[in-house]
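2024-03-11 09:14:02 INFO worker-7 job=invfold-0412 stage=load source=structure_tokens
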């Protein structure tokens, strides 16, 4: 129930509008598409961090990720991270299309993936694995 109260100059309070929740016809929509986008973003960031660490740990991986010589392995890392994002979104979207999923769980999983990917891009971290 929602009530809008208006106070007049003579300090009288008048209920102007009053609704009941049943009158508003609130319908919960599935949040599957939003969940798919969030999870795919987390996967993309995680893949970027993973590839950054792997490229430092192994010269063969760094050479494989060297798609453009002027850019170096960064070109392959970013292209593969975007490809992982797009592929995971393409997989998650149809699976979760009509579903409602607890947003707390999704946000925690996405935050863990983003944090892990973010840590993987820090030089202090990936230099621990330098070949």
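2024-03-11 09:14:09 INFO worker-7 stage=emit residues=131
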């Amino acid at each position: 129930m929602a009530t809008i109260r208006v106070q007049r100059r003579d300090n009288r309070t008048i209920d102007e509008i009053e609704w009941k929740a049943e009158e508003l016809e609130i319908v919960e929509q599935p949040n599957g598409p939003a969940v798919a986008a969030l999870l795919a973003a987390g996967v993309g960031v995680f893949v970027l961090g993973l590839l950054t660490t792997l490229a430092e740990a192994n010269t063969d991986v760094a050479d494989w990720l060297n798609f453009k010589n002027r850019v170096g392995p960064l070109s392959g890392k970013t292209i593969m991270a975007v490809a992982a994002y797009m592929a995971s979104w393409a997989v998650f979207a149809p699976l979760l299309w009509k579903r409602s999923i607890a947003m707390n769980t999704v946000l925690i999983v996405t935050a863990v993936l983003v944090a892990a990917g973010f840590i993987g891009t820090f030089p202090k971290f990936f230099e621990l694995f330098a070949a």
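2024-03-11 09:14:09 INFO worker-7 stage=report msg="The longest strand covers residues 13-19."
2024-03-11 09:14:10 INFO worker-7 job finished
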